[in-house]
Amino acid sequence: MKLLRLNALAPNFKLPETAVTIGNFDGVHLGHQAMIAQLKNIAQQHNLKTLVMIFEPQPLEFFKAYEAPPRISSLREKVEYLTELGVDYIVIAKFDDAFRNLSAEEFADILKEKLNTQNLVLGEDHHFGKNRQGNSQFLRHYGFHVTDLENVDVDGERVSSTLIRQTLAQGDLAHAAKLLGRPYSMIGRVQYGDQIGRTINFPTINVRLNRHKPCLNGIYGVEVVCENLSLKDKVIAEDSNKIGISGYDATGLFGAGHVGTRPAIKQDHPEWRLEVHFPNVSANLYGLLMRVTFLNYLHGEKNYPSLEALKAGIDDDVEKLLEFRQNTPTFPF
Hints:
- The chain is 32% helix and 25% strand.
- The protein is of the alpha/beta class.
- Helix 7 (161-169) packs antiparallel against helix 8 (173-180).
- The longest helix is centred in the C-terminal third of the chain and has 21 residues, at 307-327.
């Protein structure tokens, strides 16, 4: 897979002939996966390369900023999932004033001249260009071969990023996994936090979210794996007396995850955090790239009146989550 940024392409740059699909691909869910499968079929039939164009930021993030819908997937996660699906090229289009003001003709020119597009696979009701001027019919008149893909249904519901956001917000991780085609996870590096957890004997890792706000809120049982080494081996090497609770992946650890703004802590500017406490672990994990997979929703975020109450609440949460792990010997979904 080759990753390209549209605004960084040289004026005379041109790709091999391509079959192209376009969209946010937030979540890279079953509907998106069906689109990629169709794209690959068409590319194979016509000896083309496959290309996916995604937008960064997502258009509603440009127009609504923090009020935009929460992200299912960060840019890194999208690229990883699309790569796993066997896409040849991923083109990131910077969504800014210049891009949003492109006419339908100018956008079609980019597809033809820069991306060497021959065939397009588009979702239902796909529009593009300033004031949504362009659509599938416009592209056909322009000269492209266009395939409109029907929606994918699961249990009688149309799979969409909106539905998955709602499902995750409700804590229904099993149904979200069914819609996504995989368990829901987030990837980020461990960064320095304010280390308040250490003061109440519940040290946590603070995992960078890489999105303006997440779809989740509350306390979860999670599995954490390191993307470039065995987390389990790393922990054992640092302190063989504190090896933690094994995850379902042999290299990972089970932990108590918190996603929220920590209302019990006085903050000038509340910010979203993803924090994970590993019972019986003492290790330096700063800088490691982690994948946090959400396994069990316990409850929403609570506003505790004091640090003492917060400590008691965390203690109870950890006990319940360890009970879940003990009673769930195999991966839950």
